[in-house]
Design brief:
Layout lengths: L7 E4 L2 H13 L7 E7 L3 H14 L4 E5 L7 H4 L7 H6 L4 H12 L6 E2 L4 E2 L4 E2 L5 E2 L5 E6 L11 E6 L2 H7 L6 H10 L2 H4 L2 E4 L7 E4 L1
Parallel strand pairs: 2-8, 2-9, 3-8, 9-10
Antiparallel strand pairs: 1-11, 4-7, 5-6, 10-11
C-alpha cells in the first residue's frame, strides 16, 4: 500500500488539473468509446463537470453518469440499518447494474447505448430513463465512491485521495468513515488508479508524482 505520508505531490490549480486530465483522456482516442472512473469520497461530481466542456471542445461526445444513479433499492441498502458502514462499502452500489448498463455497452462489441441512471434512490424506484447512444471516441465519466476493486472495466481511472484528517472534515456522515478506511486498506485505490489527486483542500489539489 502506498504511504501517502512520504510520496511526492505536485501542486496544481483546479483549472490546470482539468486541462491535464482532459489531455490524458483525449490521448486514448485509439480505444474507441472510453469509460473514465472518477473515484473518491468527495469532489468527484465537480471534477466530472470540470472535464465535460473541455472534452466537448476537443470534439468528444461526453456523458456524465453519477454512480449514485446505480444504488440498490432501499430494502437492500438498509437491510442492516441506515448507518451500517459495511453495507455502505459492500452493498449499496449495484456494480452489476453499472457493468451491464454502462460499461458493457461501451466495449468494442457493445451496443454503444448507455443507461445514464438505473435507480432513483430518493424516490426509491426505477428511473425508466431512455438509453443514450455514445458514438465512437465518446467519453463516459462515471463518478462516485468505491468504484475500484470490483472488476469494473474502466479505461482510465482518477482517484481523489483524502488524508484521514481531511476525510473526517469533508465527509459529513461520520458513521460512514469506517467504510472509507476499509476501502483504503482492502482495495488500495491509489495503487489501481492511473492518476491520484490529493484533494484535502479542493481549491488546492495536488497530483501524485511517482
Amino acid at each position: 500500500m502506498r504511504d501517502h505520508a512520504i510520496v511526492r505531490y505536485r501542486p496544481i490549480s483546479p483549472d490546470a488539473l482539468a486541462a491535464e486530465l482532459t489531455e490524458r483522456v483525449d490521448a486514448l482516442a485509439h480505444r474507441g468509446r472510453i469509460a473514465v472512473a472518477l473515484d473518491g469520497a468527495a469532489g468527484t461530481g465537480p471534477l466530472a463537470e470540470a472535464l465535460t466542456d473541455p472534452l466537448k471542445l476537443l470534439g468528444r461526445a461526453v456523458l456524465h453518469v453519477p454512480a449514485a444513479g446505480f444504488l440498490r433499492p432501499a430494502s437492500l441498502r438498509f437491510e442492516h440499518g441506515r448507518q451500517n458502514p459495511d453495507a455502505r462499502y459492500a452493498e449499496w452500489l449495484d456494480s452489476g447494474g453499472l457493468r451491464r448498463e454502462v460499461l458493457d455497452p461501451l466495449a468494442d462489441d457493445g451496443s454503444g447505448e448507455v443507461l445514464p441512471a438505473l435507480w432513483d434512490a430518493e424516490r426509491d424506484r426505477a428511473t425508466r430513463l431512455p438509453r443514450v447512444p455514445v458514438p465512437d471516441r465518446g467519453v463516459v465519466l462515471v463518478d462516485g465512491e468505491f468504484l475500484l476493486g470490483a472488476g469494473l472495466a474502466f479505461d482510465f481511472v482518477v482517484h481523489l485521495w483524502l488524508s484521514p484528517g481531511a476525510l473526517r472534515r469533508r465527509v459529513s456522515e461520520e458513521w460512514a468513515l469506517p467504510a472509507y478506511e476499509r476501502y483504503e486498506n482492502e482495495v488500495d485505490p491509489s495503487a489501481l488508479a492511473d492518476v491520484v489527486v490529493r484533494v484535502d483542500d479542493p481549491r488546492h489539489p495536488a497530483i501524485y508524482e511517482p
